[in-house]
Amino acid sequence: MIFLTLFGEFFKIGLFALGGGLVTVPFLFDLSAAYPWFTSAELVDMIAVSESSPGPVGVNMATYAGFKAAGIAGAFTATLGLVFPSVVIIVIIAKLLDRYRETSFFQNLMYTIRPAVLALILNAGIELGRLSLLNLEAVAICAVFWGAIHFFKLHPIAYIIIGGILGLVLGL
Questions:
Q1: Contact predicate 161/170, CB 8 Å
Q2: Is pTM, for the whole model, over 0.85?
Q3: Quick one: pLDDT band at residue 57, thresholds 50, 70, 90?
Q4: Which of 5, 18, 27, 53 is 20 to 30 A distant from 12 in Cα terms?
Q5: Long-range CB contacts (within 8 A, 24+) of 78-81
Q6: pLDDT tens readout for residues 66-89
């Protein structure tokens, strides 16, 4: 039964998470409240691992959540549930896009979807901040990294490595 539930829940996420992996975060917060698969605190760790691991964030998170819920078979089931709607939708869109790209219907659809996706990403950022920035030390580290990202145009991997080293050195 857990595999059907995993597939169904991640299928819904895959169907409606337009805009990329971070859009899955609000859905995952809902899952953490509805099922005993992982806690909100574990979700924050899952996001950090998914962001710093190769591959799409949403797929990494589905794999991790599925593994936490039901081991390797759960990881496979959740990942399949997440990507299946995208594969079907992309195949359909690829067939229709050239024909309808310039229509006002398609243009209007995309015009209204973009702000909705941005709102979902902003919501995910606020939730991550609420769960991650629990003390002045975390706020200070976030501020330093935010400033560094804007002033020193290093590759994102550099910031991940620096953050990991800083965590080890400071014992965080």
A1: no
A2: no
A3: confident
A4: 53
A5: 78/6, 78/7, 78/9, 78/10, 79/10, 80/7, 80/10, 81/6, 81/7, 81/8, 81/9, 81/10, 81/11, 81/13, 81/14
A6: 999 999 999 999 999 999 998 998
DSSP letters of 44-75?
HHHHHHHHHSSS-HHHHHHHHHHHHHHHHHHH
Task: Dump pLDDT digits (tens) for 9-30.
Answer: 999 999 888 767 777 888 888 9
* Four-point Cα dihedral 145, 49, 3, 123, nearest 10: 0
Answer whether 30's CB lies under 8 Å from 100's CB.
Answer: no
Is residue 159 within 8 Å of residue 145, measured between CB atoms?
A: yes
Cα(146)–Cα(106) distance, integer angstroms? 36
